[in-house]
Amino acid sequence: MADSDDKLPKYRRIADALKDAVNSGQYAAGDRLPGENDLMETYGVARMTARQALGVLQSEGIAEARKGAGVFVRDFRPLRRRGIQRLAEAQWGSGRSIWAADIDNRELEVDQVDVSVAVAPERIADTLGLEPGDSVCVRQRRFVLDGKPVLLSTSYLPAALVAGTRIMQEDTGPGGTYARLAEIDAKPAHFREELRSRMPTADETAALQLAAGTPVILICRTAFAQDHRPVEVNEMTLDAASYVLEYDFDA
Amino acid sequence: MADSDDKLPKYRRIADALKDAVNSGQYAAGDRLPGENDLMETYGVARMTARQALGVLQSEGIAEARKGAGVFVRDFRPLRRRGIQRLAEAQWGSGRSIWAADIDNRELEVDQVDVSVAVAPERIADTLGLEPGDSVCVRQRRFVLDGKPVLLSTSYLPAALVAGTRIMQEDTGPGGTYARLAEIDAKPAHFREELRSRMPTADETAALQLAAGTPVILICRTAFAQDHRPVEVNEMTLDAASYVLEYDFDA
DNA sequence: TAGTGGTCTAGACCACAGC
DNA sequence: CTGTGGTCTAGACCACTAC
Q1: CA distances in angstroms from B22 to A79, A200, A231, B28, B62, listed in the order given
Q2: B93 and B50 assigned to the same domain
Q3: CA-based nearest residue to A72, from A38, A35, A32, A34
Q4: In a domain, B96, yes or no
Q5: Which chain B residue lies closest to A205 (C-alpha atoms)?
Q6: What is the distance of C-alpha B32 from the center of its chain?
Q7: What pLDDT shows up at residue A1?
Q8: Rounded to an integer, what distance in angstroms lies between the CA atom of residue B187 and that of residue B157?
Q9: Which nucleotide is nearest to B67 (CA to C1')?
Q10: What's the confidence (pLDDT) of residue A106?
Q11: In terms of residue numbers, what domain contains A237?
Q12: Whose C-alpha in A10, B83, B90, B223 is 20 to 30 A from the C-alpha of A28?
């Protein structure tokens, strides 16, 4: 109701009607919506107009087109990421992975791993307090939930610091990178996370298999040792539809 | 270079060429990009195809169309919001607004204020531990930076708790709502912020004057008193292009 | 094979911006 | 006023999906 369509373009009215139908429960998550041909007939519009209406729902993240099959209502069951508890020393200090703190009885797996050494990009060198041209250990990973990629992570550590440690290997051992840093007198004591959100690039869309209308959340985390020296920068790219981020803190 | 266009659709190639030109600095923020007519001529394509190419840049938040004028490269200078320091008691305890912690020598102003009493929505009643049908004080505000709205905030407090206090007025006085809560034995001691990101609804697009291709960040903050009783829920909607969120914490 | 969405063309009229 | 983007039509061919 309240279809106060003064002079809304046709495609907006059709889109609004579809959205109302979805919100009213007429179509549930996973259901197929009326296709281009259906809309052309129902509303007496041209193909491009029906298409544009369906495009609105896709760009708002409400629906998802599957080639040759139809347009479907998207599901939305995000993972809860506890920003602070997950990095408490009790997590990795006890040999558990910090990623274990993310799962709500669902499986979060590492899908792709790549470890290499390279010259530090300028912004990383700045943050880590390195000289231009210094090398860093680069650890790239992709995380998959229920078969769908949800997170890309690229971690940078000063090569001079971590040379010869298990951090240079694909499997960093119990407690992960942070437990290993603790063993070489570089135990993380303080973290800073910076968050942004924007629409994905084509590369990100491919790597995370993102539906149209899904933003990404960028997290840049810097880990500092007790002496305030930065020891790691971790740049993450999250499928925004797959995550809720939580931060708990005192006044 | 590296235009490895195997079988990319025309509009994607045109879009990629434009993106390269933007990234290489050929077009700076605020510059006008080649219009539909220019692209039709340059690439020998139909109007809808040129249009689709420009649509890619807009939906990725790179460019912004202005009716009757052209398509322009968007500017991007986000505001830094320090999630934890800004809520430290030292902020509001000293009579300063928590919003003062957001500005980087730029003006953040309240644009619209509305204070009312209403029945608590179900999710709010749940979070605040109220019975269904209980009333809440609802404080709605819009914040503007450099003339552009960047943040919508709706704060809910139990009506029984704040009745008769300055929290029910538009101007809550020095230190704001939290300072007033402290005066009635409900001083916030702990906070939880939950973050999501998604594409905006039509209402949000209008209220925040969002360009196409701009996501919103949703923050739901719950404030707890010393005795762990929830005293406020604040739902915020941020223009994602206007904000960087920062959280600092110890291991 | 029939139907779906993805891409593309070649036109059209409109509202709005800037000169 | 001219040019811009916004909307819309009526066709077309393709690749893919499901049956």
Answers
A1: 35, 16, 34, 7, 9
A2: no
A3: A32
A4: yes
A5: B60
A6: 26
A7: 33
A8: 13
A9: D5
A10: 66
A11: 79-246
A12: A10
B99 with B127, same domain: the answer is yes
Q: Are residues B27 and B118 in the same domain?
A: no
Q: Which residues of A touch B (CB under 8 A)?
A: 48, 59-61, 78, 83-84, 87-89, 178, 187-202, 213-215, 217, 240-241, 243-251
Reported as half-sphere exposure (CB side, CA atoms, 13 A), residue B148 has a value of: 17
* Residues of chain A contacting B190 with CB distance shorter than 8 Å: 248-251
Nearest residue to B16 via CA among B4, B30, B28: B4
Cβ-contact B190, B224 below 8 angstroms: yes
**Residues A240, A217: Cα–Cα separation, whole Å:** 6
Instruction: Assign residue B20 the CATH number of its domain.
Output: 1.10.10.10
Query: Residues 26-55, chain A: which have Cβ under 7 A from strand D?
Result: 44-49, 52
Q: Is the pLDDT of residue B100 over 90?
A: no
- In the predicted structure, residue B106 carries a pLDDT above the cut 90: no
Task: State residue A248's pLDDT score.
Answer: 93
Task: Give the closest-approach CA distance of B68 to chain A in angstroms.
Answer: 18
Domains of chain A: total: 2
Query: Among all strands, which nt has the closest C1' to B12 (CA)?
Result: C7
Q: Is the same domain home to B169 and B113?
A: yes
Within 7 A of a protein CB, which nucleotides of strand D?
3-12, 15-18
Structure tokens belonging to residue A245: 């981020």
Whether residue A240 sits in one domain with residue A136: yes
Residue B119 is part of a domain; what is its CATH number? 3.40.1410.10
Contact between the CB of B7 and strand C at under 7 Å: no
Residues lying close to strand D (Cβ under 7 A), chosen from 32-91 of chain B, are 33, 35-38, 47-48, 51, 54, 65-71
Summarize pLDDT for A31-45 with one digit per residue, the tens.
999 999 999 999 999
Q: Is residue A1 part of a domain?
A: no
DSSP assignments along A211-228, one per residue: PTT--EEEEEEEEEETTS
Longest CA span, chain A: 71
d(CA B43, CA B35) in angstroms, rounded, equals 12
Which among B224, B243, B80, B220 is positioned nearest to A78, based on CA atoms?
B220
**B13-24 pLDDT, tens digit each:** 999 999 999 999
Of B180, B168, B175, B177, the closest CA to residue B114 belongs to B168
Q: Are residues B53 and B95 in the same domain?
A: no
- Kindly determine whether residue B251 and residue A89, on different chains, have CB atoms separated by under 8 Å: yes
pLDDT at B108 over 70: yes
| Residue A153: its H or E element | strand A148-158
Best to test chain A binding among B59, B236, B247, B248 (most A CBs inside 10 Å): B247
CB contact under 8 A, B251 and A87: yes
Q: Which residues of chain A have pLDDT under 50?
A: 1-5
Closest CA to A151 of A230, A212, A78, A247: A78
